[in-house]
């Protein structure tokens, strides 16, 4: 299991019922990610869950503003230590946030 501390800058406050200082234990992490179109990604997690994630509604925070540019948005990578998506400007999303917000299209054993 991995421990992640939610960021204090409020990036996840709108979707999370947890206070910003809460430590979350998760058993899955982001294994792969493919760009589909616009601001939509296809994510796969270590627990076999995979699905699409549309990021349009999440980009109204200053650090995420650059992600509205499709060319910049496509520069994501999976950080090997954090096991989540990160961008060159330091923006990222907690893996538990991504996992909770994907539209599940399949689950692999």
Task: Please characterize this protein's 3D structure.
- With about 110 residues, the chain is mainly beta.
- Helix content is about 10%, strand content about 35%.
- The protein contains 2 helices and 8 strands.
- A hairpin with a 6-residue loop joins strand 6 (about 75-80) and strand 7 (about 85).
- The two termini are about 20 Å apart.
- Give me the number of helical elements: 2
Number of strands: 8
Order of helices and strands: EEEEEHEEHE
- The share of residues in extended strands comes to 25-35%
Strand order in the sheet with the most strands: 3-4-5-8
Structural class: mainly beta
Low-confidence stretches: 1-25
Report, as a whole number of angstroms, the end-to-end distance: 18 Å
* Average of the residue pLDDT scores: 76
Quaternary structure annotation: single chain
Largest sheet: 4 strands, antiparallel
- Report the principal-axis shape: globular
Radius of gyration: 13 Å
Question: Roughly what percent helix?
Answer: 10-25%
Keywords:
single chain, 109 residues, mainly beta, 4-stranded antiparallel beta sheet, two-stranded antiparallel sheet, 10% helix, globular, disordered N terminus
